[in-house]
Design goal:
Structural class: mainly alpha
Number of strands: 0
Low-confidence stretches: none
Number of helices: 5
Distance between the termini: 13 Å
Shape: elongated
Number of domains: 1
Strand content: under 5%
Helix content: over 70%
Radius of gyration: 17 Å
Largest sheet: none
């Protein structure tokens, strides 16, 4: 029964881990390319991506803390932690715009396709998560 209750949080954990991994890989590979072939657009995209990464790490720390000490955290503190997690999630989602910017740099059609599909995917994930009991 406990596994069913934790399922939405496990999914969020997986999504955040995937975003952190994707951002890290993208930043590393594009960082190497930036050294070899500097570009202002790539630099801006990399800045957007790396700004989100610490917030992804903070999300993991807050989530782990909440899971470990759920029975000891007061309701008011739990609400504050939940809000902080939402801020971290939103900033993490914003990091996708850095990847989108890089795709626009490659070709406007690729960038548009990525941006639209990312927005739809984020909306779908949020809608699915809001249906959890």
């Amino acid at each position: 029964m406990h596994q069913i209750e934790d399922a939405p949080e496990e999914k969020r954990w997986t999504i955040m881990a995937a975003m952190l991994g994707a951002n890290m890989a993208f930043a590393l590979f594009q960082g190497i390319e930036q050294q070899n072939n500097p570009s202002t657009v790539r630099l801006i995209a990399l800045v957007i991506i790396v700004v989100g990464m610490p917030f992804q790490a903070v999300w993991f720390m807050i989530q782990a803390f909440m899971m470990e000490y759920a029975d000891k955290i007061e309701d008011n503190s739990m609400l504050i932690l939940q809000r902080l997690k939402v801020v971290c999630q939103l900033i993490s989602y914003f990091s996708l715009s850095g990847i989108g910017l890089m795709f626009f740099f490659l070709d406007w059609f690729i960038g548009l396709a990525f941006t639209l599909s990312s927005l739809i995917a984020i909306i779908m994930v949020r809608l699915a998560m809001s249906q959890a009991p």
